[in-house]
Design a protein that fits this description.
Number of helices: 13
CATH superfamily: Alkaline Phosphatase, subunit A
Strand content: 15-25%
Largest sheet: 10 strands, mixed
CATH topology: Alkaline Phosphatase, subunit A
Number of strands: 18
CATH class: Alpha Beta
Shape: globular
Bound molecules: calcium ion
CATH architecture: 3-Layer(aba) Sandwich
Number of domains: 1
């Protein structure tokens, strides 16, 4: 038994990583060629930031939402409009980004909020570290087991808190937290990132994950931004008062409705009991959005600090800057907040990438890019061999201005936390193309703490987003879509088999 364990470990630590990651450098050494300068990578990820809440994305909030620094990144780099997550919930999405795999991947295995990432799972941190990069992660980790594959880490415990944040530096036990009294989480995370970059070994390129806490629930803004939207009426999305008619029954039973399914800490005030369902939704929308957007103001300001630092240090031209979120979020569409469903507001996530001289500035790209594509893309930019086993594909050529002919036309999605105790969202899987979204609520799933111990009748939803961009008309029973449904079901089955996702 002991011998077997030793053998397994040696395969992981010797066989898989070093032999593969140094291939490109070895090849260049053999030809006598100097290896090209490898880029630094600054990967900035916020938590639950919907694209609609970034000025550059031009949603119904355009002109209201203030994100000058993210808009600057969009102007200087490429803005992606169809970036999807493979499982729209924090912990699984973070594991997908690091491993380049769906939740069911061999190095991943993070299906729900309760699953720790396997400490031996090979991910971007290990691969870059083994290739001679400095690797660091600061801020939200949320993958339960301690981070591995980083030269430095300093993380929030679980979700962490906005005000007087506490972080746990590498080498300390879970309860040995450093408290930053009187400070705000995004400011502290940025300070730590800046300190690390200033004091790093400058002979090596770096990969730094700067993971913000904001704008995750319960939306406590920094004191300096509390009144930022005080005198503004936030425009409403067209589906704020959605009545869910014609849709899957489980959708009307979701407990993520603004106002109705919120608590005092979400809104910072008591929730009135004398309003009709519609009145409550409209009232709570204003309070919720002002808090949410004010949290984003701190993210935006701190992104500006990071960009200014790169400029000042002369690092901007040799650093790939990525801004994304672990998923999108409902900002009142369908009357909802939160994520998890396979609907556009939370299935899609912002993606802005700047790499001066290599990625054309001010461009918008509509290709379907997945969160699992970041890992292979970054490996390719850094000249590190892909160890294989990733479901994602590199989109480097897309960033350089040309979409490969065989680029994906459809994407598979799966959410596992069936009727979870907090929001009662059903497990589902489905396929999305540039025009359609086909979703199957399969009636079972992984039960979470506090979840109902019942299955429901399986249901389907089909949205023709070209004719129905707001996703309010379920066309699954419309006979004129019979052919479309047959093709989409075949595509869904093909993807499921290709990805070897067991049901
Ligand atoms: Ca999240």
């Amino acid at each position: 038994m002991k011998l077997r364990r030793v053998l397994v470990v040696s395969v992981i630590s010797v066989g898989l990583v070093p032999g593969l990651v140094c291939a490109s450098a070895e090849r260049e050494a053999a030809t006598g060629k100097q290896p090209a300068k490898r880029p630094n990578i600054l990967f900035i990820m916020s938590d639950d930031h919907a694209s609609a809440a970034i000025g550059a994305y031009g949603s119904w909030l355009k002109g209201v939402v203030k994100t000058p620094n993210l808009d600057r990144l969009a102007r200087q780099g490429m803005r992606f409009t169809s970036t999807l997550v493979t499982n729209s919930i924090c912990t699984p999405s973070r594991a997908a980004i690091l491993t380049g795999q769906y939740s069911h991947g061999k190095n991943n295995g993070v299906y729900t909020l309760a699953d720790p990432i396997n400490p031996k799972a090979i991910h971007l941190g290990h691969l870059f570290q083994q290739a001679g990069y400095l690797t660091a992660l600061v801020g939200k980790w949320h993958l339960i087991s301690d981070p591995q594959g980083f030269d430095y880490w300093n993380i929030l415990p679980g979700q962490g808190r906005y005000i007087d944040p506490q972080l746990r530096p590498m080498g300390k036990k879970p309860k040995e937290l450093t408290t930053y009294k009187g400070k705000y989480s995004e400011d502290v995370i940025t300070d730590l990132c800046l300190d690390w970059m200033k004091n790093r070994d400058k002979s090596k390129p770096f990969l730094l994950f700067c993971h913000y806490k904001a704008p995750h629930r319960p939306w406590d803004p920094a004191p300096r931004f509390v009144d930022l939207y005080k005198d503004v009426t936030i425009p409403e999305p067209p589906t704020l008062l959605d009545n869910y008619k014609g849709r899957a029954k489980v959708i009307a039973e979701c407990k993520n409705v603004i106002g109705e399914h919120m608590v005092k800490t979400d809104l910072g005030v008591d929730i009135p009991k004398d309003k009709s369902r519609e009145e409550l939704r409209k009232w709570a929308y204003q309070v919720y959005m002002k808090r949410y957007l004010s949290c984003i103001a701190a993210v935006d300001e701190n992104v500006g600090r990071l960009l200014d630092f790169l400029d000042k240090e002369g690092l901007a031209d040799e650093t790939i800057v990525i801004y994304t979120s672990d998923q999108g979020f409902f900002l009142g569409e369908h009357g909802f907040y939160d994520k998890r469903l396979m609907y556009e507001p939370c299935l899609t996530t912002p993606l802005l990438i700047r790499y001066p001289g290599r990625v054309p500035g001010g461009k918008t790209n509509n290709d379907m890019v997945l969160n699992i594509d970041h890992a292979p893309t970054l490996l390719e930019f850094a000249g590190i061999a892909n160890p294989g086993g990733m479901h994602g594909k590199s989109y480097k050529t897309i960033l350089e201005g040309s979409t490969p002919k065989n680029w994906r036309k459809s994407a598979y999605y799966r959410y596992y936390m069936h009727l979870d105790g907090s929001h009662n969202i059903p497990a589902c899987y489905g396929v999305r193309t540039d025009r359609y979204t086909l979703i199957h609520y399969y009636g079972k799933g992984l039960k979470m703490k506090g979840a109902k111990d019942i299955d429901h009748e399986p249901e389907w939803e089909l949205f023709d987003r070209q004719k129905d961009p707001e996703q309010i008309r379920n066309a699954f029973s419309d006979p004129s879509y019979a052919g479309v449904i047959r093709d989409l079901r075949a595509e869904l089955e093909r993807l499921r088999k290709e990805l070897q996702d067991p049901l």
